[in-house]
Write a structure and sequence with these properties.
Length: 204
């Protein structure tokens, strides 16, 4: 869809259009030509507002980070606040899996991303974790959140019948789980373990 004639062309509107293209068409749909067409302009005119695709991706990263609820980390209840933050963080990136694949491959350099990590680490330190413990906890949470946002575990498997007679343990597990909910259940279980481990360290 072309942009509205009343929408100003700037760094943010360009990034929003890029995010829409990636959400709709995947990584292959993300080109400067397609972006210019989406905005109803010629590609060279984009460079009056952004210097490169990398700058656009930085702004896309910022847009997604703006969806994360950092206020949850101010909750005096560590378990509740950390869980709420993790759910918000995962939801923000799960809404944009194509963009997430691009973002996780890039250095962490945007102010928005650095603010997210600083807020998380400040909360963990504020609850009494040592700096090295806080960093390890942040690493585990990041893998859990972004890994589950980008990839479905159960979606990588065919039906149990396709593995019959060859992989008995896998067949039994596939038949025992609910494919509609197992990915969410896995995330919740991992998050619960992490939250309890962090709370135990904070209580020492």
């Amino acid at each position: 869809m072309p942009r509205s004639s009343t929408a100003p062309l700037n760094r943010t509107t360009i990034a929003r259009a890029a995010l829409e293209l990636i959400d709709e068409n995947g990584l292959e749909g993300w080109t400067m030509r397609a972006l210019a067409e989406r905005l109803g302009v010629r590609a060279p005119s984009l460079y009056s507002h952004v210097s490169s695709q990398e700058e656009i991706l930085d702004t896309v990263h910022e847009l997604i980070d703006d969806e994360i609820d950092l206020e949850a980390l101010r909750d005096p209840d560590l378990r509740r606040g950390l869980a709420a933050f993790a759910h918000s963080y995962r939801a923000a990136y799960a809404r944009h899996p194509g963009a997430t694949v691009l973002i996780v491959r890039r250095p962490i350099g945007t102010d928005s991303a650095l603010r997210v990590y600083d807020a998380l680490l400040a909360a963990l330190l504020g609850h009494g974790l040592a700096p090295d413990e806080a960093m390890r906890s942040a690493v585990v949470l990041d893998y859990l959140v972004l890994g589950s946002a980008v990839e479905t575990f159960i979606g990588g498997f065919a039906g149990a019948d396709d593995y019959e007679g060859r992989y008995p343990a896998l067949v039994a597990a596939l038949r025992a789980c609910d494919r509609r909910t197992i990915d969410q259940e896995g995330f919740e279980a991992g998050l619960a373990h992490l939250v309890e481990a962090v709370a135990a360290r904070a209580a020492r």
